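2024-03-11 09:14:02 DEBUG pipeline.ingest accepted 1 chain
2024-03-11 09:14:02 DEBUG pipeline.ingest length=201
2024-03-11 09:14:03 DEBUG pipeline.predict start
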Amino acid sequence: GYPPPQQGSYPPPQQGYGGQRPYGPPPGSDPQLWNWFTAVDTDHSGQLSVDELQRALVNGDWSPFNIETVRTMVNMFDKDNSGTIDFNEFAGLWKYIEDWKRCFQTFDADNSGNIDVVEMRNALKTFGYNLSDQFIRVLVQKFDKYGHAAGKGNITFDNFVQACVTVKTLTDSFRQFDTDNDGWIQINYEQFLELVIRQRT
């Protein structure tokens, strides 16, 4: 027969074999942010899933982030449409969250850790949205995870981000139809369905 191969006669596979990249921080990256990323990356894939990211994000009252908010943010920063985010995408998302956190703290006038109807009105007005009190009450009630009575609701940080992103996305969709910028549009039933479905995907 043939002699058995000697031990060590084959070179070991290179690190990164099979498409897995060497798992280390990119040059010039923030070490603290890298440590946080690797702690959250529980399956050590080098990518964060929506579930992994949600488990790591909490509001000021220690409640977990709304999964829809997390999914929205991942979709915004997932440049390669993988459904996950790598470290560079995560670094962009982290800056986005920090910017929103500063914004939230600015409008949380009573430092309650929540945004009420009055504070939400002030925030949206600052962002350039001149909306009625009735609409703002509906918006806050929609995103109030604790289901307070109408007009007495408040929203946590994660839902504040989701509410503002929703208003912006719907406004952008509306403006595609509002060609003369008069605040009025005329659309048919299917156009309306398309507008809503695009916003929800």
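2024-03-11 09:14:41 DEBUG pipeline.report Helices lie at 31-40, 50-56, 67-77, 87-107, 117-126, 133-143, 157-177, 189-200.
2024-03-11 09:14:41 DEBUG pipeline.predict end
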